[in-house]
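Moderator note: this is an archived Q&A kept for reference. The question asked for a predicted structure of one protein chain; the sequence and the answer are reproduced below.
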Amino acid sequence: MVTTLDKGCYLVNGETLIPADGEAAAKLSGLGITEAERDSAKENTIAYGILKDHNTSGNMDKLCVKFDKLTSHDITYVGIIQTARASGLEKFPIPYVLTNCHNSLCAVGGTINEDDHMFGLTAAQKYGGVYVPPHQAVIHQYAREMLSMGGGMILGSDSHTRYGALGTMAIGEGGPELVKQLLGQTYDVDRPEVVAIYLEGTPKKGVGPQDVALAIIGKVFGNGYVKNKVMEFVGPGVKNLSADFRIGVDVMTTETTCLSSIWETDDEIKDYYEIHGRSADYKELKPGKVAYYDGLVKVDLDSLNPMIAMPFHPSNVYEISEVNQNLEDILEEVTKRAKVSFGDKVEYSLRDKIVNGKFVVDQGIIAGCAGGGFENICAAADILKGNFIGNDRFTLSVYPASTPIYMEIVKNGAAATILETGAILKTAFCGPCFGAGDTPANNAFSIRHSTRNFPNREGSKVQNGQVASVALMDARSIAATAANKGVLTPATDFDGEINKYKYHFDSKIYQNRVFDSKGVADPSVELQLGPNIKDWPKMSELPKNLVLKVVSEIHDPVTTTDELIPSGETSSYRSNPLGLAEFTLSRKDPEYVGLAKEVRAAQDALIEGSDPVAAFPELKGVMDVIGKEYADVNNSNVGFGSTIFAVKPGDGSAREQAASCQKVLGGWANIANEYATKRYRSNLINWGMLPLIIDEGDLPFKRLDYIFLPDIREAVEAKSSTIKAFAVSGSSMKEFTLKMGDLTDDERQIILDGCLINFNRVK
């Protein structure tokens, strides 16, 4: 059972919870807590101490953070380094690890992906970084094994950058935030609130880390309880979880939309560091004698059962037994969700998965930073032992998260056990998580111990009439289902033993294959750029006035970054800004690219000194309407571009391309009721786009209308809290109000300059 508190709370001596209500002072006094200790309790969380150690502003309310280390993978590091190069990069100032776990299948796109890898290798040599070749490790497993450190902070360009279980506060952000760190700048954010995730009890046999994580996500995602906050794991239940178990829960905190996570550490984590030959990187972390938290999520581990996140979101959570008992009703609910995402583009139903009253799935996947851990695979092997997956439709693939893990399961026999069942073992690869590996057949249902199950994230293409479904489950229940030849089965139905295996880490694998510059740059190395690696196009500064066409209107409750720019099939173009932009909103609104390009033609003409109306005649009527009230608006003080409206855009990935693709197509703004994550809003800002907010209610504009923002540059410069706007439709112009939210001075200047590249070039 997972419950939340509607107020803050105090934690005394790491175990006793005191809600911050009218009786709190007396209860704390009764426990020997003084008034001074109570007043300073906010400073006694683990998170506060780590943030204070990394803050350079001198003001703990307005943080300017410098990280200890950076990490990226091969669909983000090319763009990051290209951006930093354009801003004068000469050397990586802190350790920067470039892993290759997303574009590993170099058959996709011909030589394009391997060109990116060679760019990464030569960049690590030239600027003094670390290069992890394909198939060695997924980004987060390598970071756990080789980068994490107690009390440290790591910034990564992948949203699942989470190493809190090992005592490292880690944050996943869009690439421009890493560029800032490479250029000696800071990560600027208001001090986040900290929410206690209070664990008690012990998980029952068959319940794994994904089950705990999904239970938490199901409770807190919908109401935004931990949105942009730090989740701090404390309580007596922590000691009952292995390091691997904690890691498996921790990596999924991203799906709550929290900013970061941190756990108290103990001998279990100390052993983890010793096993990996890094004892000096361990640090004991725990809250102070009395710590104040801005919220509380209480998790009774004893009561949790195997869980399943049904399509199409990690928060769509049920107990597996509940699904089996209420198949018809729950599958109908999933069908309704599909209607919201797909409309009438495809026929979608799961009723054919019901066979003789049981739910039969088509595919199982245990993979990546969430599922590919040593304990998960060993537990799956124990459950599978003596069974076979059958020779019908059901398939099972297992991807160890690193080569050291792969080697260890070969040595201890788990690999042989898995292979004997008919399952397949594959190398370290993130592909199944984002649609570049093990894409299911049309109408297939896949159960996965991975991180996300957004619409079409598994690689199917609704625009081509193809759709598949992914549900998230723990490796243990996936194995139990596989042993039952695809019949959905919770691992608690398994009556055999799930053993505890000792892990032996072999560092020679990395020593013999990973390039580590030890921080020494070699300027003589020439970057190897393949023909698909392109520089960013030039971008204009924010004009005095803006005319924007609403080229897409999305009313889904949440719009994921996968829907803004697809994963999977676009991987080969992540180093080519204009090539990638052709895929923007392709799954959600296939007309977007063409409409955006039409408006961009007007801005291009303006930059070239020619007539924008001649380039896009539709603008004549719009400018005539605007000119009736704003006669001084002319080609010398106006800019043209596009915008989209979405209710709540940006859930999911950190990929900056969700914003940059809109920008290179002429986008100047997003308009939303709210932004799903800080990282997406940051991406908009860093690409010079206005992160506009409109209150919920009737929209004053619709798709294909125009929005006029008079004196928008002045409004940004003046730090205006509200933005005057006009909806232009036909011959009328209707005034309405937009907001932009809090911005730092640097963020405002980035928007004024047109993007982070321009900002740094000006500096």
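Archived answer notes: The two ends are 53 Å apart (CA to CA).
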